[in-house]
Amino acid sequence: MAGSLEACASWGDCLDCKILNMVHKKLVRDLKSKCKMDINESFLKLVLGDANFNIEEAGLSQQCLKKGCYIGMLERHGEENFRSNGIDNVSALASQLIREAVKILHVEDTIAREPIILVLDCEVQMLPWESIPILRQQEVYRMPSVGSISMTLERSWHYQEQVGRNAAAFPLIDPLDAFYLLNPSGDLSSTQAEFENWFRDQNFEGKAGTVPTAEELATALKSHDLFLYFGHGSGEQYLSIGEIQKLEKCAATLLMGCSSGSLRLNGCYSPGGVSLSYIRAGSPVTIANLWEVTDKDIDRFGKAVLNAWLRQRMDLADCSQCNLLVKEFEAMKIKGRKGNSRKKIASSSLAETTNGRSLKNTCDHRPKIGSFVGRARETCTLSFLNGASPVCYGVPTGIRRKKDL
């Protein structure tokens, strides 16, 4: 588990930390001056950053002044104040100060954070860490190692260069460029009834109620941005792990079968499974289930995620940060002086590469694939059983709009 904590430490920072930093500094000053505490500033900042933080549930109201506690402990020169006021009074004051700071930060919504990638030890990878309160509404991914993160990102950059696309920081997919495999075993009639017509309305390619050949599936994975599987298991019975790992390019995948994301333990070797095979084949992200699920609940989850992706695709026209960049580069282009021809050329070419059209395809400011998973969990009737089963393997992956779709 230590590896997972180290991997998480460099991710999950706040997207806009100005308010958090301001409130954190004020709270540290207040706790030191009013409560005479030696503060654990790092953990205090973590507490403030947790949108779902509850000071009573965390037990800080009773423990915030105990020796070796979470937030801090009394300084020696504060012992006289400690004896006169009593630990309960000073603890209550510290709790009140923390609670007031939390209210300032979380009046309406959660703090927006950078994506988090968990690198989990084989002993804990089967647990639904994404559903603990501090992570449930965050954008969380899983990867088997830190090296695999770099490999997946580099593979994406290399492919974007090959196709002549402006390189984005993260992989990009178009959710309308999808291929579906729906109820291939023929015994999930309610699932087929739920999705078949809807998939056709979206002009998705695919098969419903029939078993495809391995060649058909391999071709679909190589030629589309997204692969949707609604059937039993992980679909390994239709395309083996060996065939998947032979692919040079692979679509992002949504595997809604039972235990489609569970990993098999291999003794002293790293755990393996179909979900990681898709990642090794080049899939930027794979959403799959850790354990068995009921069909109606997981259908609700799958539809909620797909609807969110499609809505995000439709909203690509406006990004305030990208629009601001375009205006700034246009201003640079206009203000270029005759004497600075080299600078003029540089700013002009930069403006051209960051025009509105290209920024729509490479924008890194918008929500990624994994950011919609937490919200979709809540659509399940059993949101902490069936809703906690889906997890994202891979790296943060954005949504784009292809010209021909």
What does this structure look like?
The chain has about 400 residues and is α/β, with parallel strands linked by helices. Helix content is about 45%, strand content about 15%. It has 16 helices and 14 strands. It has helices at about 1-10, 20-35, 40-50, 60-65, 80-85, 85-105, 145-160, 190-200, 215-225, 240-245, 275-280, 295-315, 320-335, 340-355, 355-360, 375; strands at about 35-40, 70-75, 115-120, 140, 170-175, 180, 205-210, 225-230, 250-255, 265, 270, 285-290, 390-395, 400. The strands form 5 sheets. A 6-stranded mixed beta sheet has the order 7-6-8-9-12-13, with helices on both faces. Strands 1-2 form a two-stranded antiparallel sheet. The chain starts with a helix and ends in a 6-residue tail after the last strand.
Q: Which outline best applies?
A: elongated
| Largest beta-sheet details | 6 strands, mixed
Q: Please mark out the parts with pLDDT under 50 across 5 or more consecutive residues, or reply none.
A: 1-11, 61-71, 73-79, 334-338, 341-356
Care to count the β-strands? Answer: 14
The chain-level mean pLDDT equals 78
The structural class is alpha/beta
Tell me the strand order in the biggest sheet: 7-6-8-9-12-13
Roughly how many Å apart are the termini? 43 Å
Task: Enumerate how many helices there are, as a single number.
Answer: 16
- Fraction in helix: 40-55%
Strand content: 5-15%
Return Rg in Å.
Answer: 25 Å
Topology as a string of helices (H) and strands (E): HHEHHEHHEEHEEHEHEHEEEHEHHHHHEE
